[in-house]
């Protein structure tokens, strides 16, 4: 069944996200899952306390195989939805993961970036960036699903966080399947939840920006020695992928 682009755009602007069911290929996701396990073990060995709370790690991924798949970055439907909101000249700034394991806890409710105009906290403006999220494994109530508070992207941040952390705003768990794609406004407040199973729950994100907004990093988080993007691999990509990745720092071959 074709995706209703207009409906998805409207959902993002209204509640803060939309979901494309069974959209990314499971074979590519399984390849990522298998490759991610040794990376997670390495990071957990170096940073045993976690860097996003107990037993929870944010780990940057390189724009390179086995984690880079054109199916994730060059998908017509995803690009159409995101560019309708951010503009045709948008670009990608970040690729990474959030992964809790057994022993993790509830995160404090938070948003991923500040408002653009702190002097006018009630000013409603469209998003400067969007997050394209997908999980390498099915999310269940037991393995730490992502929770969101819908329609909070425009509310006064300090007030909404206080109310959400006090339990006065409902948080909705998103039980995504491997293959589902979540496109979200990262100003919408959310949190990670505890993983009560013996298996990691990697949750990937690709950050898309308006052409004038950039949050790119020089090094991958918790994965600092891995080149973010090499010139050689960049030159193998399609013209559209190269345009999307044009602002990612590249390593000379």
Walkthrough of the structure:
The chain is an alpha+beta fold and 253 residues long. It has one domain: q2cbj1_9rhob like domain (Jelly Rolls). It is built from 7 helices and 9 strands, in the order αβαβααβββαββββαα. Helix 1 (5-14) packs across helix 4. It is globular and about 50 Å long.
Can you tag this structure with a few keywords?
single chain, 253 residues, alpha+beta, Jelly Rolls, six-stranded antiparallel β-sheet
**CATH topology, what is it called?**
Jelly Rolls
Multimeric state? single chain
Structural class: alpha+beta
Helix and strand sequence: HEHEHHEEEHEEEEHH
The biggest beta sheet is recorded as: 6 strands, antiparallel
Described by the principal axes of the CA atoms, the overall outline is globular
Q: Bin the helical content.
A: 25-40%
The first-level CATH class is given as Mainly Beta
CATH superfamily: q2cbj1_9rhob like domain
What is the rounded distance between the termini? Answer: 43 Å
Percent strand: 15-25%
Biggest β-sheet: strands ordered side by side in the sheet: 1-7-4-9-3-2
**Rg calculated over all Cα atoms:** 18 Å
Number of strands: 9
Mean pLDDT: 94
- What are the segments in which pLDDT stays under 50 over at least 5 consecutive residues? none
Q: What's the number of structural domains?
A: 1
Number of helices: 7
> What is the second-level CATH architecture?
Sandwich
